[in-house]
Amino acid sequence: MMTYIVFILSVIFVIGFVGFSSKPSPIYGGLVLIVSGGVGCGIIMNFGGSFLGLMVFLIYLGGMLVVFGYTTAMATEQYPEVWVSNATVMGVFLLGLLMEVMLVLYVLKSEEVGVVFKFSSVGHWAIYDIGNSGVFSEEIMGVAALYSYGAWVVVVTGWSLLVGVLVILEVTRGD
Amino acid sequence: MNPLILTIILMTVFLGTMIVMASSHWLMIWIGFEMNLLAIIPILMKKYNPRAMEASTKYFLTQATASMLLMMAIIINLMHSGQWTITKVFNPTASIIMTLALAMKLGLTPFHFWVPEVTQGISLTSGLILLTWQKLAPMSILYQISPSINLNILLTMAVLSILVGGWGGLNQTQLRKIMAYSSIAHMGWMAAILVYNPTLTMLNMLIYIMMTLTMFMLFIHSSSTTTLSLSHTWNKAPLITTLILITLLSMGGLPPLSGFMPKWMIIQELTKNSSIILPTLMAIMALLNLYFYMRLTYSTSLTMFPSTNNMKMKWQFETKQITLLPPLIIASSLLLPLTPMLSILD
């Protein structure tokens, strides 16, 4: 089972996404997002990215989802919709599950499509690389590269986040 | 809107498009598209009525879907070529998905359904930004991947866009919807020549932006959003009436006005590549476009459209100043003799 752990985790990931895409009440969507976030963290950690997995738990689940949970708890209605309360929601959820099951069967049975075990590195294309030393983990080097060679990306993403906050404030102001 | 916030947001729209046009890394291009989309939403929602909210939501959903398709194409390209630089996209799957994603962003058929509805729901100035500036970024990416685009898909979408742009605009009286369908048709012309000679795509984009800017400025000057209110301009500013006539005929592609230049060059390039039926069909379908432009000029400049008597004696308010209208008029009608200067666009 351990060789297929990434596959199993990604199937649970997709089922989680189907769960909140079928639009139950946002509280239940947040619940499923917690599960999906945890499972996504597991997928990243299986490729050696322990730092990024920790970031997912801390920032995404512990920061953004907590704020989301509090705001939806303030704005929730008296009888929130669950997956089984509404025929439409249940239908979409079951349809998504069916598609996922068919995809899993196709991947497991067919000879052409396989399961990804390991990503091959970018070889000599990368300008910031540690080679095959095996001492440093690649993802920590990636984070370090972001703040040295990739400073422009940090500037652009920081600016996007600032503008995102301004846009949201502007849109919800209503006037 | 607070002037500081408006400045920051407009700057971010500009920055987003600039990042898309100047980047060599696919991820930065995607970031540029998202930044552009995020920052234009409050501009579309300037008036807080439900129509504008609905239009902004539709725009956001379609453009976000297109960005997701673009990201998938980028990742497939990464998987097969192992690198992130913008070059010819070698994998056919990635190329097709990327073409479809960029067609969604531009509003080519069969992804054109959002263009009239979004353009109608927002104010004239926002519609101006939507139909001119927002087309620059996806077109620049199409230009850069043009050697690897699947010809069948792109030409099908182009011809269908010209047809839909002409046919769909026939029953419209709202000026913003007319401009939206005109935009769909022009994007079709641009996409048709992209694989054969991308320089002409850029020429068509340039002339189209100048003509659309002129039309929108004239509409903003007379504050008219329907054919009926446009037909009252003879009373408010008779010169605007003449300018509307000239610009609309230029948009229809009539010589000796500058709107003829891109169509002429495109048809010439297509025939040089031994396709005769296609440019004939495209030219015939451009007649549909010309029909509803002519109908606008008929009701505005050539006749005094029937109206109630109190519309015939309008109080003269202070005239709005429009940016750059004289140069735009000149550019959108008199550029045809400059056709040999095409070589500077290479």
Keyword list:
heterodimer, A: 175 residues, mainly alpha, Four Helix Bundle (Hemerythrin (Met), subunit A), 2 domains, 69% helix, flat, B: 346 residues, 0% strand, globular
Plain-language structure description:
The complex is a heterodimer of chains A (175) and B (346). Chain A is an all-alpha fold. Chain A has six helices and no strands. Chain A folds into two domains: 127 residues, Four Helix Bundle (Hemerythrin (Met), subunit A) (Up-down Bundle), CATH 1.20.120; 38 residues. Chain B is mostly helical and 346 residues long. Chain B has one domain. Chain B is built from 15 helices and no strands. In chain B, helix 2 runs antiparallel to helix 6 and helix 12 runs antiparallel to helix 14. The N and C termini of chain B lie far apart (41 Å). The mean pLDDT of chain B is 91.
Question: What topology emerges from the helices and strands here?
Answer:
The complex is a heterodimer of chains A (175) and B (346).
Chain A: H1 5-21, H2 26-46, H3 50-74, H4 87-109, H5 138-148, H6 151-173
Chain B: H1 3-22, H2 26-44, H3 50-81, H4 92-106, H5 114-121, H6 124-144, H7 151-168, H8 175-192, H9 198-222, H10 227-230, H11 233-236, H12 238-252, H13 260-272, H14 277-302, H15 325-333
Helix pairs in contact in B: 1-2, 1-6, 2-3, 2-6, 3-4, 3-5, 4-6, 5-8, 6-9, 7-8, 7-14, 8-9, 8-14, 9-12, 9-13, 9-15, 12-14, 13-14
